């Protein structure tokens, strides 16, 4: 562990840590000291010193032993300094340094190095758990309670809940949601509205007087588990993000009232009856698989010309006046308000309706 404690130190100027030129690293990993016994020749020391590489993260230089990374071959850094480096896929810049992609700051990378040293991510105060999670996802580092230690349990459990919600909804999507979408698509629909009811809900509509809101076009899923899943707005956000990744569009997930059964019947004058339904608040999913909801990509520009005067200039009183034609009087708005005025001649202006 002493070896990793030195290799992950920042070498940026102005920091309290030793600079790159001031740090001398031996096989024991102790900065400023060489790992040699008394009387050992200096020529043997050079052969025992481990390889060192310089990583540039957010403008900060880290001198590390690549063996730290190759000990975890399933991570991105393990692959970069393992087979990819051996086959010349990982190349340094002109200064011989390896630049890590932008988006990971130096403080986050300090925590990342903890994982390579001891297999645990020690997230200190002031470090965003969400940013640490994004860095772990990019670097292919497992992010769970076995690898993360954090004082802010709320933020940690939030990220773990998002992981669990994503895995759950992936199962619900394939088992429940996709079959309902396929059913709508086979009927020629371009979108799908799904209402999630609990297993105990019953739907009993009056066939002669169905609900007036168009619920008969909705797909129904009976699943108490999915109903409870959508009670949390965070789970709805996770589900929406997953549906976007699967290529769906115009996604809306929320809670709405859904009519379940007839409550009473009111008689209106004239013998017309009105059915009052009992509504319950249930989750819904609405999505489309076309580019534009409710619009066809084929545009028909067929126009029908209205019956009107063919000459627009003549209708507006401009240009030469035909013999016998009476010019249209100009009526001011104040004249109309203050008193009676002569009725103007109505002239239809040609227009086109598309």
Describe this structure in words.
- By secondary structure, this protein is of the alpha/beta class.
- 32% of the residues lie in helices and 19% in strands.
- It is built from twelve helices and eleven strands.
- The chain has helices at 2-7, 42-48, 67-70, 76-80, 83-86, 106-118, 129-138, 153-186, 224-229, 233-245, 312-315, 333-338, and strands spanning 53-57, 60-64, 98-99, 121-123, 148-150, 191-197, 219-222, 249-267, 273-288, 304-305, 352-353.
- The strands form four sheets. It has a four-stranded mixed β-sheet. Strands 2-1-3 form a three-stranded mixed β-sheet.
- Helix 6 packs across helix 7 (129-138) and helix 8 packs across helix 10.
- It starts with a helix and ends with a strand.
- Mean pLDDT is 74; it is low at 1-46, 300-304, 331-338 and 346-354.
Biggest sheet, strands in spatial order? Answer: 7-6-9-8
Bin the strand percentage: 15-25%
The largest pleated sheet is described as: 4 strands, mixed
**Distance separating the two termini:** 77 Å
Secondary-structure-based class equals alpha/beta
Average pLDDT level: 74
* Oligomer category: single chain
- Tell me roughly what share of residues is in helical segments: 25-40%
Rg over C-alpha atoms, rounded to the nearest angstrom: 36 Å
In DSSP terms (H or I, runs of 4 or more residues), the helix count works out at: 12
């Amino acid at each position: 562990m002493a070896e990793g404690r030195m290799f992950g130190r920042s070498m940026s100027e102005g920091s309290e840590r030793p600079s790159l030129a001031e740090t001398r690293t031996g096989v024991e990993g102790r900065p400023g000291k060489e790992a040699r016994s008394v009387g050992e020749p200096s020529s043997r020391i050079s052969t025992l010193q481990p390889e060192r590489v310089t990583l540039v993260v957010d403008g900060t230089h880290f001198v590390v032993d690549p063996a730290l990374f190759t000990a975890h071959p399933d991570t991105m850094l393990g692959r970069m300094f393992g087979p990819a480096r051996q086959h010349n896929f990982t190349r340094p810049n002109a200064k011989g340094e390896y630049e890590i992609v932008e988006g990971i700051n130096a403080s986050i990378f300090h925590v990342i190095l903890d994982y390579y040293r001891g297999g645990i991510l020690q997230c200190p105060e002031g470090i965003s758990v969400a940013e640490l999670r994004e860095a772990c996802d990019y670097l292919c580092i497992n992010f769970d309670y076995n690898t993360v230690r954090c004082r802010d349990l709320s933020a940690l459990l939030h990220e773990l809940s998002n992981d669990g919600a994503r895995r759950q909804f992936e199962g619900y999507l394939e088992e429940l949601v996709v079959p309902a979408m396929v059913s709508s698509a086979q009927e020629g629909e371009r979108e799908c509205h799904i209402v999630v009811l609990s297993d105990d809900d019953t739907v009993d509509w009056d066939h002669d007087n169905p609900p007036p809101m168009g619920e008969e076009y909705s797909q129904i899923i009976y699943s108490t588990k999915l109903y409870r899943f959508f009670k949390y707005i965070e789970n709805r956000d996770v589900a929406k993000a997953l549906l976007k990744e699967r290529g769906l569009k115009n996604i809306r997930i929320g809670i709405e009232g859904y009519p379940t059964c007839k409550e009473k019947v009111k008689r209106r004058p004239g013998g017309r009856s009105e059915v009052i339904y009992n509504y319950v608040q249930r989750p819904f999913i609405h999505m489309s698989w076309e580019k534009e909801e409710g619009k066809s990509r084929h545009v028909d520009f067929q126009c029908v010309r209205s019956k009107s005067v063919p000459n627009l200039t003549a209708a507006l009183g401009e240009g030469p006046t035909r013999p016998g034609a009476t010019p249209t009087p100009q009526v001011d708005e104040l004249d109309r308000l203050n008193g009676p005025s002569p009725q103007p001649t109505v002239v239809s202006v040609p227009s086109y309706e598309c």
